[in-house]
């Protein structure tokens, strides 16, 4: 019933003729009713996103030596954002691109390239039982996967690594699936907590979902070895769990596009060989490996058991996309399609990946040496870790001191984006970390 009708009804009920109702009373009654009907809008302010909040603080900081080691975005040796030469060239080639809508499932040419990139030679075996759509980057792919699986697979719980990319939790919370955090990283060994993880996953039930990061784990930079991947695959197969691979760093992690897809392909092969496996999906991002952060380029690949057709699943994925954003963005996808579809551009792209991953590796090596000089302790883990991030082991208090006294910004968890380091700031950062460590 509209608010004014409720008010009139109440007025006629309580304020009968002869009753002298003053205006103050009328207004307070109206205010009470408004509050009751709009109670769902009376929300506590949600905590601000830590990384984006810190980035704003960094921007506002006027200190000449400030260093940002926050964002998961590549920076070149001068500390500047870098447009990959392969991307620059592709942009020239598509300069007269159309601005028409894409279809709901995105660009078929892009989706084909994306699928081949992640599954490699296995793509030939993933026809009828695979459904792929273009998504709004890796975040969108994770979100569409969660929405789809919550509705159709109906897992009793989703297992996410602890720690992990912050959005995994938010996305699955919004999908309404109970979350279990499985131990992923052991601060004492600075390696994967294999025993803890396997023990936790033993509690999973048929069709439960497990999130695995394909390579360059965010935030730890610590990946499974091949032997460890095989152990996880054995458990997943035995318990018939559904894997969501989050593949946000293919090629960016090590510079080797196929090597970085090893785990995804290993699991896919196992599913292909199985009669009874529930399937898996891959949420693929092109933000980091193409430097197309703002273009929101991604894909979701869903792979159902051999006995099934994925056509129905594909139509459901499209229903979700249609309702959420109608169709994905065109420009970034056409850049990726152009690069991957041209021999020369593809070779250039591989060289670009090498430029990024080698620079990061070089920074890791320098940082290790400098920190070992500063602190007289072992920092080999910084060099061993892979990809954009390093889990430094710095405490929240040490991170605060770095920010307040040295204007060096990291996440409170101690996660450092190694991309923010370069020859000009690495001494300053290492000295600052050294001082904070010595005087903890
Ligand atoms: C593990 C992981 N997954 C997914 C993403 C999603 O990135 P985007 O939405 O920019 O593709 C990120 C970005 O930092 C990530 O680290």
UniProtKB/TrEMBL annotation:
<comment type="subunit">
    <text>Homodimer.</text>
</comment>
<dbReference type="InterPro" id="IPR015424">
    <property type="entry name" value="PyrdxlP-dep_Trfase"/>
</dbReference>
<protein>
    <recommendedName>
        <fullName>Aspartate aminotransferase</fullName>
        <ecNumber>2.6.1.1</ecNumber>
    </recommendedName>
</protein>
<keyword id="KW-0663">Pyridoxal phosphate</keyword>
<dbReference type="InterPro" id="IPR004838">
    <property type="entry name" value="NHTrfase_class1_PyrdxlP-BS"/>
</dbReference>
<comment type="similarity">
    <text>Belongs to the class-I pyridoxal-phosphate-dependent aminotransferase family.</text>
</comment>
<dbReference type="GO" id="GO:0004069">
    <property type="term" value="F:L-aspartate:2-oxoglutarate aminotransferase activity"/>
</dbReference>
<dbReference type="InterPro" id="IPR015422">
    <property type="entry name" value="PyrdxlP-dep_Trfase_small"/>
</dbReference>
<keyword id="KW-0808">Transferase</keyword>
<dbReference type="InterPro" id="IPR015421">
    <property type="entry name" value="PyrdxlP-dep_Trfase_major"/>
</dbReference>
<dbReference type="Pfam" id="PF00155">
    <property type="entry name" value="Aminotran_1_2"/>
</dbReference>
<dbReference type="GO" id="GO:0006532">
    <property type="term" value="P:aspartate biosynthetic process"/>
</dbReference>
<dbReference type="GO" id="GO:0030170">
    <property type="term" value="F:pyridoxal phosphate binding"/>
</dbReference>
<keyword id="KW-0032">Aminotransferase</keyword>
<dbReference type="GO" id="GO:0005829">
    <property type="term" value="C:cytosol"/>
</dbReference>
<feature type="domain" description="Aminotransferase class I/classII large">
    <location>
        <begin position="65"/>
        <end position="433"/>
    </location>
</feature>
<dbReference type="InterPro" id="IPR004839">
    <property type="entry name" value="Aminotransferase_I/II_large"/>
</dbReference>
<dbReference type="InterPro" id="IPR000796">
    <property type="entry name" value="Asp_trans"/>
</dbReference>
């Amino acid at each position: 019933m509209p608010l004014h009708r409720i008010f009139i009804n109440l007025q006629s009920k309580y304020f009968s003729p002869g009753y002298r109702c003053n205006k103050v009373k009328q207004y307070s009654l109206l205010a009470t009713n408004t509050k009751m009907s709009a109670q769902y809008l009376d929300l506590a302010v949600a905590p601000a996103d830590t990384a984006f909040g810190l980035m704003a603080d960094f921007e506002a900081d006027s200190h000449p030596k400030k260093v940002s080691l926050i964002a998961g975005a590549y920076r070149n040796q001068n500390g500047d954002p870098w447009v990959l030469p392969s991307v620059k060239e592709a942009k020239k080639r598509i300069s007269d691109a159309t601005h028409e809508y894409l279809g709901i499932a995105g660009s078929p040419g892009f989706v084909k390239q994306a699928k081949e990139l992640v599954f490699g030679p296995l793509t030939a075996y993933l026809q009828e039982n695979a459904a792929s759509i273009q998504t709004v980057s890796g975040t969108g792919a994770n979100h569409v996967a969660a929405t789809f699986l919550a509705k159709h697979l109906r897992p009793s719980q989703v297992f996410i690594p602890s720690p992990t990319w912050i959005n995994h939790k938010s996305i699955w919370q919004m999908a309404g699936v109970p979350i279990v955090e499985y131990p992923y990283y052991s601060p004492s060994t600075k390696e994967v907590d294999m025993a803890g993880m396997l023990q936790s996953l033993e509690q999973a039930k048929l069709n439960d979902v497990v999130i695995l990061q394909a390579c360059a784990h965010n935030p730890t930079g610590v990946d499974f070895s091949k032997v460890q991947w095989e152990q996880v695959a054995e458990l997943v197969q035995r318990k018939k769990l559904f894997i969501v691979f989050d593949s946000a760093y293919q090629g960016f992690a090590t510079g080797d596009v196929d090597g970085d897809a090893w785990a995804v392909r290993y699991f896919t092969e196992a599913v292909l060989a199985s009669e009874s496996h529930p399937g898996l999906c891959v949420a693929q991002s092109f933000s980091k490996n193409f430097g197309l952060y703002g273009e929101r380029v991604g894909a979701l690949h869903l792979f159902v058991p051999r006995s099934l057709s994925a056509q129905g699943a594909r139509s459901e994925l499209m229903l979700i996309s249609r309702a959420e954003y109608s169709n994905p963005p065109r420009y970034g996808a056409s850049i990726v399609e152009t690069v991957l579809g041209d021999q020369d551009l593809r070779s250039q792209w591989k060289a670009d990946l090498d430029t990024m991953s080698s620079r990061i590796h070089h920074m890791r090596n320098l940082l290790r040496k400098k920190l070992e000089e500063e602190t007289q302790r072992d920092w080999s883990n910084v060099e061993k870790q892979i990809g954009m991030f390093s889990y430094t082991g710095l405490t929240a208090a040490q991170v605060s001191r770095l920010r307040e006294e040295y204007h060096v910004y990291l996440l409170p968890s101690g996660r450092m984006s190694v991309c923010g380091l370069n020859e000009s700031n690495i001494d300053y950062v290492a000295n600052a970390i050294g001082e904070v460590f010595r005087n903890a």
